[in-house]
């Protein structure tokens, strides 16, 4: 009897809870009339939480600031935060939830390429808008995605050029984590280097698993490769957690930046926060933004960020700037279109130009990539980067690499009448290789 | 007497005026260091190097340390060091006090990698005659690296004057490197080749292969080729030893991670998926201890790792006891439920730590006695790894003693071998269960202290070790500590020997395949327990 009673009580409890939840949903549905919803699709748990949580916070800050300025189209913005938990299929599920249930006007999210590939079909099917803020391997252009991070020609190629011209590097180690971004980037770099006359035996490619922590033999191998009498550099596409033990081992084995410099594409201020940077002095990173960039607009951004997070030690990094640019572009495009309807916004996005944090203006190109300056920085003792080289102008993002045989004839232009993400200029047809 | 004093005084004045005169010559050069960006600084540095005056050494050292600034008001180049809120300025050549400045009033002279290289080359050439032996030695090493032909004359003088045998050897090697790069008479080159063959490391090999490829005469080419072969053979031998060391060091990390599991899984039979999280908790305890010491006792920071050991053992052990009392004791004899429950627990612990400490990595800095490396013959051994190897074996020995020689160990063995009988003999089995699980978890916490030195202190720390730990315990033989030791070292060495040939990714796959095949043949692992206890 007692069991049955508890059972009944439980049923009652559940239905009461369900009722409450329904009420909450109904409440938010009512509120939807005078707000515009913005989806934030970043992992707050799991492996990628280390990088993505910061991006969620910066989006909340940007939305908050925009609301203080009066919102968009006279309506307040409302952030809808979901947690895909570093689980790639869950990204697609959460994206669908944001677009169909919450009916968000735009989504800002994803970090890894595999998560972007996983949500891509959802955004194309439901005609949503995704702003992707991370440097990536290129070879993709979708009508529904705006790529505000760097394409390979906005990060990898200029970094290699810098090492070749300024450091006179002749021998290259391309070290990366074993997944799509490093593999594609290294393929592009290998083709580029060979085009510049670098011989086969002067290029060494090395892949390691995610989260690799025992770097002793690989670092020793790099040391060995670097002692062949030619100036050697390491181009690192090592991702996430594996970087800390990698740099620790470099420091321990006494590889100094003046002997074998390491240029990294995935190491920013946030990643350096977990390492003692004294042994890393002078190692390089290539990005489109550094926290140390000395412009009034950046100083303001950093001040707001520290105030918003109530933490004086929080650092800023490149993907945060990408969200800053992407969000402001979206606001401008929505105001120009006068509506949040996806088709209208997609059309008015192209050509929108907003200030970036390095003192210039970034514009959205017809291929849904943006123009950015490329900065090369050296690690300083305080965990920041000192800019040692900056491209004189802005570099337009090139989605289909000119150095890969499969993609060198492809272009993307989402303006009418072409409206094609992979137009083959040789055959004159839309629909080449790639997606 | 008085006369002698006057002479001395006069001599002093004369020396002072000549050095002042030299300093006056350097002054315009030093002034130009602050203008023209990296290229301007580099040009000024080259001119200082050509002037060859040791008076420039403090200036260049300040530039290297990032203490050289330009005063914005008048463009004066000064050494600025932090003093209170602002900076105290001194003259870079004379060391005289210039004044003070706020941080906004001076600009740092920035250096990049190319400049850093020039700085060490210049400093090397200028400090070859330094009275300090350590400075002379590093100067000689710097010249060996830079192979700067301008330094040859100074080098010859320095070699003639040098008393210390070992420093002279390095200087001679540096001279050999300069000669091989710049070119010299055949006899000199032959001597240089011999000197470098005796050095016999990778740097020497690089120079020798250069001569073997593009030497001036055939005789030189053959001599260099012979030298290259000799050095390569030597390096190959050391390379194999180095691999063995890497294997031992990876093995000891595996041993540390697995040894706690050998207690909870091996001895108790609990499939504890939250084992990795105990390691993680140990690492975070280390972080907290270090933070605490930094705030309250900055002098003791170097000892924080040692102080963290008991703390991590107690914290992880305590969490282990709580887990056993609250979750696991209801699930004895139900392996599937234990697996699911502890896996859920591991996720919960990860997220709890993430909410508490944030998702980003926490920095646990290495104490001075654990950073850096030393050379042993042709081996490079890093202190951090060396201490971890020592520590792993110490923990293993301590656990062995605890299980074999103490009353507590006896109770553990009694309970695992025959629970009803142990109970009948008056052993409180429930309490022994809790303490055993606590012991295993505490040892995992100790592993966390060591791992904080080589891996990320992040909520995901434990995840990367749980698979490896199970692999080691199963491979070594469940319930056998020696098996865990041998298993860990064997897998570590196997991995490190495969890595250079197969790459890290394929290497790991091959190890897994090997274990699968091995377990097919010997399901109970390397050292299988025999007897009735196994069948029960």
TrEMBL record, chain B:
Principal location listed in the UniProt entry: membrane
UniProt subcellular location: Cell membrane
Membrane disposition: Multi-pass membrane protein
InterPro entries associated with the record: ABC_transp_permease, ABC_UrtB_bac, BCAA_transport_permease
Domain of life, per lineage: Bacteria
GO cellular component, one term: plasma membrane
Entry protein name: Urea ABC transporter permease subunit UrtB
Species: Azospirillum griseum
Name of the coding gene: urtB
């Amino acid at each position: 009897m007692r069991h049955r009673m508890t059972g009944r009580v439980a049923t009652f409890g559940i239905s009461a809870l369900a009722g409450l939840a329904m009420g909450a949903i109904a409440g938010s549905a009512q509120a939807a009339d005078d707000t515009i919803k913005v989806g934030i699709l970043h992992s707050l748990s799991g492996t990628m939480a280390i990088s993505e949580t910061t991006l969620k916070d910066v989006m909340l800050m940007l939305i908050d600031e925009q609301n203080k300025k009066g919102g968009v189209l006279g309506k307040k913005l409302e952030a809808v935060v979901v947690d895909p938990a570093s689980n790639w299929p869950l990204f697609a599920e959460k994206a669908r939830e944001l677009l169909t249930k919450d009916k968000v006007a735009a989504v800002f999210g994803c970090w890894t390429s595999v998560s972007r590939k996983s949500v891509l079909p959802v955004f194309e099917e439901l005609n949503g808008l995704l702003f992707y803020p991370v440097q990536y391997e290129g070879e993709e252009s979708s009508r529904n995605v705006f790529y505000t991070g760097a394409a390979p020609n906005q990060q990898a190629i200029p970094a290699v050029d810098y090492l070749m011209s300024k450091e006179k590097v002749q021998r290259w180690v391309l070290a990366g984590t074993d997944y799509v971004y490093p593999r594609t980037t290294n393929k592009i770099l290998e083709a580029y280097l060979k085009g510049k006359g670098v011989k086969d035996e002067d290029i060494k490619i090395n892949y390691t698993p995610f989260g690799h922590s025992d770097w002793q033999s690989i670092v020793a191998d790099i040391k060995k490769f670097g002692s062949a009498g030619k100036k050697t550099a390491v181009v690192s596409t090592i991702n996430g957690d594996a970087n800390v033990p990698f740099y620790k081992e470099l420091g321990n084995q006494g590889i100094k930046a003046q002997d074998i410099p390491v240029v990294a594409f995935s190491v920013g201020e946030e990643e350096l926060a977990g390492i003692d940077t004294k042994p890393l002095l002078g190692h390089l990173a290539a990005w489109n933004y550094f926290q140390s960039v000395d412009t009034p607009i950046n100083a303001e951004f950093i001040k707001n960020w520290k105030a918003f997070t109530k933490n004086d030690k929080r650092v800023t990094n490149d993907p945060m700037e990408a969200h800053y640019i992407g969000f402001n572009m979206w606001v401008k495009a929505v105001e120009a279109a006068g509506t949040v309807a996806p088709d209208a916004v997609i059309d008015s996005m192209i050509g929108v130009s907003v200030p970036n944090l390095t003192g210039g203006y970034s514009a959205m190109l017809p291929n849904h990539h943006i123009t950015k300056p490329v900065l090369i920085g050296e690690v300083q003792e305080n965990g920041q980067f000192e800019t040692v080289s900056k491209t004189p102008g802005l570099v337009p993002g090139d989605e289909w690499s000119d150095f890969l045989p499969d993609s060198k004839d492809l272009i993307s232009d989402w303006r009418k009448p072409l409206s094609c993400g992979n137009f083959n200029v040789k055959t004159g047809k839309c629909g080449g290789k790639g997606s | 007497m008085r006369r002698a004093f006057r002479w001395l005084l006069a001599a002093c004045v004369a020396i002072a005026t000549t050095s002042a005169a030299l300093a006056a010559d350097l002054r315009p050069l030093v002034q130009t260091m602050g203008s023209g960006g990296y290229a301007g600084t580099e040009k000024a540095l080259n001119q200082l190097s050509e002037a060859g005056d040791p008076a420039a050494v403090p200036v260049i050292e300040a530039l290297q340390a990032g203490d050289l600034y330009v005063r914005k008001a008048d463009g004066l180049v000064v050494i600025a060091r932090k003093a209170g809120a602002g900076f105290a300025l001194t003259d870079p050549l004379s060391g005289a006090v210039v004044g003070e400045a706020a941080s906004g009033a001076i600009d740092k002279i920035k250096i990049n990698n190319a400049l850093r290289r020039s700085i060490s080359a210049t400093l090397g050439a200028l400090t070859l005659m330094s009275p300090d032996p350590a400075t002379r030695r590093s100067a000689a090493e710097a010249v060996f690296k830079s192979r700067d032909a301008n330094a040859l004359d100074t080098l010859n003088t320095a070699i003639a004057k040098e008393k210390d045998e070992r420093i002279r050897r390095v200087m001679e090697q540096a001279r050999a490197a300069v000669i091989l790069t710049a070119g010299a008479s055949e006899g000199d080159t032959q001597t240089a080749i011999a000197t470098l063959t005796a050095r016999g490391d990778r740097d020497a090999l690089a120079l020798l292969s250069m001569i073997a490829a593009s030497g001036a005469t055939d005789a030189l080419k053959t001599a260099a080729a012979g030298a290259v072969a000799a050095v390569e053979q030597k390096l190959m031998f050391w390379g194999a030893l180095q691999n063995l060391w890497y294997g031992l060091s990876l093995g000891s990390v595996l041993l540390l991670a697995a040894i706690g599991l050998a207690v909870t899984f091996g001895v108790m039979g609990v499939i504890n998926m939250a084992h990795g999280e105990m390691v993680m908790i140990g690492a975070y305890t280390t972080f907290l201890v270090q933070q605490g010491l930094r705030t309250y006792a900055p002098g003791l920071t170097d000892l924080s790792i040692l102080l963290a050991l008991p703390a991590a053992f107690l914290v992880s052990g305590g969490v282990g006891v709580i887990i056993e009392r609250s979750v696991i004791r209801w699930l004895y004899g139900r392996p599937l439920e234990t697996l699911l429950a502890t896996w859920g627990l591991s996720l919960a612990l990860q997220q709890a730590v993430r909410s508490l400490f944030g998702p980003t990595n926490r920095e646990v800095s290495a104490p001075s006695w654990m950073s850096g490396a030393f050379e042993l013959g042709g081996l490079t051994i890093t202190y951090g790894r060396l201490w971890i190897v020592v520590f792993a074996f110490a923990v293993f020995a301590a656990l062995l003693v605890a299980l074999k020689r103490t009353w507590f160990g006896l109770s553990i063995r009694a309970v695992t071998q025959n629970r009803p009988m142990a109970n009948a003999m008056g052993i409180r089995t429930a309490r022994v269960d809790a303490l055993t699980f606590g012991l295993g978890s505490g040892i995992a916490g100790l592993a966390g202290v060591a791992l904080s030195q080589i891996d990320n202190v992040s909520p995901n720390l434990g995840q990367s070790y749980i698979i490896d730990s199970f692999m080691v315990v199963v491979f070594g033989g469940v319930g056998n500590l020696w098996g865990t030791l041998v298993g860990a070292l064997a897998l570590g060495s196997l991995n490190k020997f495969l890595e250079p040939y197969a790459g890290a990714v394929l290497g790991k796959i091959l190890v897994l395949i090997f274990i699968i095949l091995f377990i097919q043949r010997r399901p109970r692992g390397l050292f299988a327990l025999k007897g009735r206890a196994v069948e029960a």
